[in-house]
Predict the 3D structure of the following.
Amino acid sequence: MRTRLMELAVGAFIVMGIIALVLMAFRVSGLSASDTGDKYTVKAYFENLGGLTERAKVSMSGVTIGRVTKVYLDTEDYVAVVEMEINKSMSTLTLDTSAAILTAGLLGEKYIGLTVGAEDEYIEDGGVIEDTQSALVLEELIGQFLFSKAEE
Amino acid sequence: MSSEQAFVSIRGMSFSRGNRLIFDNIDLDIPKGKVTAIMGPSGTGKTTLLRLIGGQILPDAGTIEVDGYNVPTLKRAQLFELRKKSMGMLFQSGALFTDLSVFDNVAFPIRVHSDLPESMVRDLVLMKLEAVGLRGARHLMPAELSGGMARRVALARTIALDPEMMLYDEPFTGLDPISLGVTVKLIKSLNDALSLTSVLVTHDVEEACTIADYVCLLSEGGVIGFDTPENLIENGSEQVRQFMQGKPDGPVPFHFPANDFSADLLKRVK
Amino acid sequence: MINKLIDSTQLLGRAALARLQALGRAGVFLFSSLMWGGPGSAGFGDLIKQIYSIGVRSLSIIIVAGFFVGMVLGLQGYTILSDFGSEAALGTMVSLTLLRELGPVVTALLFAGRAGSALTAEIGLMKATEQISAMEMMGVDPLKRIITPRLWAGFIAMPILALLFSLVGIWGGAYVGINMLGVDEGAYWGNMQASVQFYDDVIKGLIKSLAFGLVVTWIAVYQGFDSIPTSEGISKATTQTVVVASLAVLGLDFVLTAIMLGSI
């Protein structure tokens, strides 16, 4: 009888551990069902990343639809290449979709915001987003401001 | 040495612990099927000898053959096989597993080493407990047993697998007269009923001599006597006889080496 | 004078060699225990029993500690973040701190103190009362029978305890932040969800606690097995378990954190 109680306790213990893990997955880390679904890869080129890193969010209209998977420099054209994974459920990105590097919140976390265009055809797996807007770099902004001020 | 078959055969064995030489190139035979008592002054390494035979420690030199197998050369798996088949050791404290009941303690070796169904295990355990007279105590926990009872349960556990040789480490120490009588009787009757080879380590000369077929006396790293108890008492060397008869003074002196007594006293006054 | 210097150097050398020897013994010990034995070496029932005594019995201290640590994190975190006007990031701060560091580490330290010392004492006592020798003489390998199930139990129990610690801590931080300090509930949980990555933070924390579980249980069990079989010896071994295991956890934490951060 005592062993029965012990076995029950251990069983409950392990179940608690599993529940904790599940809670962690969904409530704490915001893992959602769509995250574990199929994805396809899309590339985009930028002049300046401005602090965008791997694992940054890719979102459209504020809704997260993917993640940045790889960030590197193209040594032939000297542009920054960003590879991102987008949920298959969002496979209706038109060819003229634009991608911009934006800042989220006060702490300055960078993410990619996508805006759909008007074309009929969609971007395939492995495709490239042509229309890109680089991150705003503080020094360049100040330079522009000073330049425009000087012109006045 | 007798011409009977030896179950344990030790040749040229030396063992030292730290700087102390405990055994110096000794030869010893333990005859099969008999009760052999190993005795000697405290600290001569009687228990160490048991551990050497059981393979728990390795000698510095020499061979220790048990049932034909040279124990120090055995690999771990082989050593465990040999112990399972041929050896049973009863420790001074009994060494029962404190978290298991008397029944489970005795059942332990049977359950681990065989695939017998629980009903058969139960029968075996009850038989072994009956042999030591504790069948009715089978549901008690070791903490609830007296010293003598604990040792008897340990004995039942040790014979659970019917080993060919039993090693007893100080089985008589610290027992009340009744338990003592019981233990003596059990050792002898088990030895005869199961055709065991029994090796007793003890310094209880009286009790040992009542059941021992042979006595082996150890002292200062060597065997100083090996014979039947009667022969040792009658014909043994002075050292042997001092031990067997318990004389306070003789080859082993009463006084620890010291200066002249009066000189010592006078020094204090200065 | 010179003699004293030579003597102390000799002593130091001997002590260092002794430690190295002990480490070697401990390594062989671990290898032998795991090499031939899976979790069920002493039967499933025994594994359950060990998980109970090591894991379930540690639950109360882990949960209470987790709650307090989470609350303190909430308080301290709020104070620091409010200087930057970033109180909304409290959820992020509490959860990441717990999941990546405090959860596994503090759990391991508490575990070493409670379960570790108990293990050492138990095994040391078994050695002192010759139960280990008796088992050997019965032809039963005490490593497989006693040590292996305990090692596995620690390995299984620790990550569960660490997860529970973090969970309770996050909730504790939420309680303090939301109910006592006025942090917005949506901000707390929302920001947390946004910044905590399951595969990176939660899983890495789990890996840490698995490693800690192995190391702490190994040290505890070895110290007991290797202890001098007297009451003094056992008490010394128990103390040593807590000290050595705690230091090992902290040191291992640094190594693991460096590896994990470096691989990003």
Q: What stands out?
A: Chain C is about 85% helix and 0% strand. Residues 141 and 205 of chain C are 35 Å apart (CA to CA).
